[in-house]
Queue: 3 jobs
Job 1
Amino acid sequence: MRTHLIRAAMTLAVVLAVSSTAEAQTMIRGTVLGVEGEPIEGATVTIEAVEGQSSAEVTTNGRGQFSQIGLNPGDYRFTVTKDNMRSELMARVSMAQPNELEFVLAPAPGDVLSAEMKEIADAALVAMEEGRSGDAINMLNELVVNLPTCSDCYYNLAVAYFNEERYDDAVGAFQQTVQLAPSNSDAYTGLANIYNIQQKYDLAAEAGAKAAELGGAAGAGAGSQALFNQGVILWNSGDFAGAKTQFEAAIAADPTIALAHYQLGMANLNLGMVPEARQAFEGYLQAAPDGEKSAEVNGFLQELPQ
């Protein structure tokens, strides 16, 4: 059975992966880094609702981190600035586990984004939000010609290519992203995702390991998803023992990832470890009693010996 990766946060236009477990209020946490991976203190993070009047502004601490609670659920534009540096992305805020964002700040060519380039960037963002990836590709290619050091531009170009299933083009854009922003864990996750689809499991494992390393530095949520993705890659390559180790690590980092419990149960079954499989499937039901796999899991629990 082929398994798909959890999609990590994708800059500008991709919805963040979140748990289905509701929380009392929304929370956004993020990290702002420089191009060498150093934390950026004193960066201004402006949060603006795409629809409605909700907005907020926070400043990063000495570790480059920020947080904001109490936002209304919906789509938000996050803009991070300091001196002549700027980064922007879109994310969906929901009543779920805290969303984890990461920004990489780099000097903008000419110190500021020209009005013409800003207009193109905004139009590309709208096109991606509306699912017009082809239009976004044309605009983002214009941006990277004029802004060759814009890692966010290359990242979003990769996402647009991915959405169009132009995987080789997406790989090239993701690789350009990590050349400009080596600490961008989402770009490595994107590479792992594509290599997994292409059944290039060695490359997928390498990219996934890098995403897990960088994601762990960004917070438990990001790290747990990267560990899950690494487990998926190993599962798809037939390395059930290796997959088991990664799923266990993902659960240790974040017990609310229901699919990690499910995949751990499947790995244990393939390894003949029936009691451990039962325990993992019970963990799935605790994390997501009405989840998409709940009927299947209940069936397993009825059939497996105690």
Job 2
Amino acid sequence: MDFNLNAVLGFLQSAARSGVAELTSSWFYFQLGLVVAGAGIALAVSALVRSRIDLTSLGMGWSPLLRRFVRVLVGSTSTAVFALLMALARMAMVMATTPGRSYLLSIAAKLALAWLIIRIVASGIRNSFIVRAVSLVAWLVAALSIVGELDPVIKALDSVAVTLGGLRVTPLLLIKLSVLLVIALWLTNVISNFLEGRITRSGDLTPSLQVLLVKMTRVGLLIFAIAVALSAVGINLSALAIFSGAAGVGIGFGLQKIVANFISGIILLADKSVKPGDLVTIGDSSGRISAMNTRYISVAAGDGREFLIPNEDLITQKVTNWTYTDKNALVKISFGTSYDADPQRVCQRAVEVASTPKGALKSKTPTCLLTEFTDAGMKFSLTFWVADPDNIGTAQHEVLLALWATFRREGIHAAYPVREIIARGGPPPVETGPEVSR
């Protein structure tokens, strides 16, 4: 570990001497009073502007980017007014006395102007956390540059180092890498969203191929952004071989499921066995696939629940895809009648009823078969087709109600068990006569 103590101590001593020298000057307190007064006036003006401007009604019909830009401008009113007041106060002091006695006002005006510019530039970023992080880092760098302490701070941060193999890690390196990674990942997200919109709007691509292209694009851009950020700060990617080896060991021992789900997701997207919108049954879970992600698929049950099923389960388990090659679904209904009914007449009426529900296919004729003679009566199996598997439950309900109404109208009775009880043996009946009085 390298540590340049003299550079750090020299920087701290220089900062301490400058601070003590400034605090002993009466002009410092005069400028500080002007700064406090300017801040109060700026806050009052900002409160007045916000009370007079209704951003909701003002931004009606505007694009989201323009609305966000105007919101930032209105929110930065205090900063703009403060920068203007400090600039005017410095100009007045320069005309009234020497320029050296208005240094604090100059610094305050430059810091406020730098913050205003940074906030306006960062208004194009949607993520609030990234906006705050980028704004804070950029303003700190601008502040150090304004006060003339940027080079000493850089040297102090670069003086502390830890050597890992052939890589020299310093606080300055980590800060640069963090800033570049944030910028690179933000640009990656913007480009990925743009390409995803173009891919999803393409009618020539199937849904599964669209998802595959989006995932591959995101992963490729992410790897490229990280590689560019590492190279920009001077890190040789070959120096990370030891970390890649450790990552391989970690994958071998603790990340098998994650990697298996990732690879399984790519296989599912490539072979098109399932795709968004398919009606599937996996174990006890049934519903439509609403999303296919890197680790899992989301199956919407239709009652507010969503099953998150790992991709590996779709590779290793039995999956029923109701809409793989044909969206038509076969509906089966079992019912019974008494032996008093005519089986041919029952089948004829059942076929007529099965052709009436909403969504039933007219191109495929329903069938009704006598399947069994039981103690209770005759059993029948009625089958018909519907155009959408989501209509199976509704179609069954409509057909059963229609069967009930038709059978009552036709005098066809439902099957019910008939039992005869025959008593044999037992004691003879006891004859009772008039009671004999004693």
Job 3
Amino acid sequence: MWAAIALAFGLAMDATAVSAARGLAAQPRELVVLPLLFGSFQAGMAAIGWLAGRWAGPYIARWDHWVAFGLLVAIGGKMLFDGWRDRAKDTADCAPAPASIMLYLGLAIATSIDAAAAGLTLPLVPVAPWIALALIGGITAACSAAGVLAGRVFGARFGPRLAMLGGLVLIGIGVRLLAHEL
């Protein structure tokens, strides 16, 4: 169960960082819209990845722990790199883009692509996949709501660090899965 919770928090960090940045714009509807979209898209994309993994599972059964390790380390590494790169930028003068449904959908898709890849690893997590998917969606929604609320105070300062923390969590899960299988 703890692996599923850690995976959910790791995946939620990029959505949390984006929510914190959007929180700077202080539009009240974003407290509802972003958590619903981000949570739904994270769970949906993870489900797509899980279904793809079920189809490809028999073909990669001997190598699944290596595939999971590679995917999680790659996703986590990308999150670390993006967080480091964004941290290096001067974000003090950057205001969030004006809100629109297309912006919200674009952000939801962008922050959930990694969940599709992580969904491939769900069969290795020792919990029923539907529980893992519910945790991914619920934790992402809760973290996104917290991100919007904290955005005014902490968003510009800690947003990239949240993405980096999420990357480290995903890398840790990948290392743990590989160590467990070897």
